[in-house]
Design a protein that fits this description.
The termini are far apart. The chain is mostly helical. The protein has a two-stranded antiparallel ribbon. It has 19 helices and four strands. Helix 17 packs antiparallel against helix 18. A hairpin with a 2-residue loop joins strand 2 and strand 3. The chain has a single domain, classed as Up-down Bundle (Sodium/glucose cotransporter). The mean pLDDT is about 85.
């Protein structure tokens, strides 16, 4: 290993030690009871709630996937996706956050998303609890896989190590400290990781821009690529055997610009709909100490989100200007942040910046594993299979579940050619369409009933698979991102079924009204 690589490894190693130390610090408190382990006793302050929500949400795709999209096909796809995410972030904090914090306390002090839905509709047979828990297990296994892919790509690119080995090592590290500290360790480390992520993005953006000769230099270098710097066009790399072709001068070859029409814009903007159903974000709303603090959290979150998304897209564009022929496949293009960091910064500082990717990966994967573990142990095991289970038994089952979900994530991540952005987009659509509509209707429409909730979740979650696997490959209008049609159809199912079936009981309606003004 070279001296430069050693310095990078030392910086990243120190970061890992700090994260594991946080897990040890919160170990005793987390293991007091399942309430502390899964939701931290509702004790988060506004800064930790905001930063941990955004850090756990964005994950490695923010620093690798999104810049990779901008590098590969230009501004439009990354820009409209970022706009949709920014709008979704703001509306989620504005519409959902305070209402969910209050309602989850009113609805039997719910500490998981499936438990909230189940208690919101006062179900006896626990159908909603079962359906929502199963969807969480499935989609978070996919999400965890995307994080492990990021970890493997990062270390294999930096140190020329075997991808599968370092990917598994990353999974083991995440499991270890999530095991120990639970939600509190995860949230505090996510707060720190959110800071590291935004500093890393801004640093690489600044240094990259200077190296490329400023904004004018970047534009000059890439404006000759058809569709690359357009909002309503898209660059189309000429690919053979999965690799972009180079001309005799060693420059990458692009075809004519593709059309980026209204349907495609709607498709990418619809990423914002996913926020209403993201358990890792919604759980932070439920865990904040006081609902009155959520306004402050919203401001922190949206500022962080805007800066981070802008920086990620810009890094991809600058990377194409600086390294036009270095990354010749869609998968390798996701390494542009790494290439810029190691190529433009001193080794030790590059190691600190690389910890930003590590931070993004770990802050998300720990959330995914913990929520998946709670979905089975708290909701299925204690809520359905063994209702008299002790708190100790729930904790044991949660750790076993955490290991199993992580194992499935590792299996998904074994292919080093996996494209992070593609994996995340599927899981994002799954959560957005399954939980987003029913979350909004549960909080905002008193007439929503249990039958409507079940119909909405099944329609949304099922349609994501049907549209992705069967309809989207047909192209044309059907080529739209599966989140949008699945979300719309889920909303329709909730409305139609709720109106055709019995009104909610009066006790449910009274609880709905109480949640509007409940102080907590």
């Amino acid at each position: 290993m070279s001296g430069d690589s050693l310095q990078i490894l030392i910086a990243m190693g120190l970061y890992l030690i700090v994260v594991i130390g946080i897990g040890f610090y919160f170990k005793e408190r987390a293991n007091e009871n399942s309430d502390n382990f899964f939701i931290g006793g509702r004790s988060l302050g506004p800064w930790i709630a905001a930063m941990s929500a955004e850090a756990s949400d964005m994950s490695g795709w923010l620093m690798m996937g999104l810049p990779g999209v901008a590098y590969w096909c230009g501004l439009s796809d990354a820009f409209w996706t970022a706009i949709g995410l920014a709008i979704g972030t703001y509306l989620n904090w504005l519409i959902v956050a305070k209402r969910l914090r209050r309602y989850s306390a009113v609805a039997g002090n719910s500490i998981t998303i499936p438990e909230f839905f189940s208690k919101r509709y006062k179900e006896n047979k626990k159908i909603i609890l079962m359906i929502s828990s199963i969807f969480i297990l499935v989609f978070f296994a996919v999400y965890a896989g995307s994080c492990f892919v990021t970890f493997g790509k990062l270390f294999s690119t930096l140190f020329n190590l075997q991808y599968q080995y370092v990917m598994i090592l990353g999974a083991v590290i995440v499991i270890f400290y999530t095991f120990m500290g639970g939600f509190l360790a995860e949230s505090v480390s996510d707060f720190m990781q959110g800071i590291i992520m935004i500093v890393a993005l801004c640093t690489v953006l600044t240094v990259g821009l200077m190296s490329a000769g400023g904004i004018s230099g970047v534009v000059e270098n890439i404006r000759g690529i058809p569709g690359f710097f357009e909002f309503f066009g898209i660059a189309q790399p000429q690919v053979a055997d999965g690799m972009q072709q180079l001309n005799t001068a060693g420059k990458p070859i692009f075809g004519e610009a593709g059309n980026y029409g209204l349907l495609t814009i709607i498709s990418t903007l619809s990423w914002g709909l996913g926020y209403f159903g993201m358990p890792q974000v919604l759980l932070r709303f439920m865990a904040i100490n006081k609902s009155s603090e959520l306004k402050k959290s919203r401001r922190i979150a949206i500022i962080w989100c805007l800066i981070s998304l802008f920086s990620a897209v810009a890094i991809g564009l600058i990377g194409r200007s600086l390294y036009p022929a270095n990354l010749l496949t869609p998968g390798s293009s996701e390494n542009v942040f790494i290439i810029m960091s190691t190529g433009l910064l001193p080794p030790l500082l590059a190691g600190v910046i690389m910890s930003g990717i590590l931070a993004a990966t770990m802050s998300s994967s720990d959330s995914y594993l913990l929520i998946a573990a709670s979905a089975f142990s708290k909701n299925i095991y204690q809520g359905i299979l063994k209702r008299n289970a002790t708190d100790k038994q729930v904790m044991i089952v949660s750790r076993i579940t955490l290991l199993m979900v992580a194992l499935f994530g590792v299996i998904i991540a074994l292919d080093e050619k996996s494209i992070i952005f593609s994996i995340v987009s599927f899981a994002w659509a799954g959560f957005g369409a399954t939980f987003g509509p029913i979350m909004l209707f549960s909080l905002l429409w008193k007439r929503t009933n249990r039958a409507g909730a079940v119909a909405g979740m099944l329609m949304g979650g099922g349609m994501v698979f049907i549209w992705k696997l069967l309809l989207r490959p047909l192209g044309g209008v059907l080529g739209i991102y599966e989140l949008f049609p699945a979300f719309v159809l889920s909303c329709a199912a909730i409305i139609i079924v709720s109106l055709l079936t019995k009104k909610p009981d009066q006790s449910i309606q009274d609880e709905f009204e109480l949640a509007k003004t409940f102080e907590c």
